[in-house]
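User: structure tokens for this one?
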Amino acid sequence: METYPIALKLGGRLCLVVGGGKVGERKIASLLECGAVVRVVSPEVTARIEDWARLAQIDLRRRCFQEDDLDGVLVVIAATDSYQVNQDISQLCENRQVIVNAVDIPELCSFYVPAVLRRGALTIAVSTGGASPMLAARIRDGIGERFGADYEKYVELIADWRQRALAEIPDSGRREAFLKHIVDDVTMDMMQKEQFDLLKERLADVYCGYGG
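Assistant:
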């Protein structure tokens, strides 16, 4: 079955992680990075999860999963070591029309978590549709070698010029042409060669050429 790739805004939205082991810990960390409100259900948890709870960064319920743990939840991650428990959670989520990911059990998932590369506002996600998360991670790491950590500042630079063009170039045709021009092959080559100062000068010259 084909999947529909999306990027969810989880800031301030309630998400549930069932399972307090190392896998659950990783999932909680990624949700917290997105600004989600995280509810965790597990009778046993790692020391790091305990710390998050002590600092009131998560809502920890130290017991086995109950159906009412799903109340108000947007996203569920089932990360227990019991197939039956994960299956029960998946079925309850389907009944409630809540999206769920059962870690490493594709047939119980309504969505898959891709391998993600972040460079500031740039997010690159790689998914194999649950077929091989390790392959997705290998491909992501290969992409990361091309788009290094400094890429964040290039994305910010392009974003700044885009916002300026939207505000200052009233003609839609010229504005669209400018926006295409600033991400052309020359720009991409300068990014790859880490020629940040030259790129700043070039974008300013290009902007003048479009009447900005």
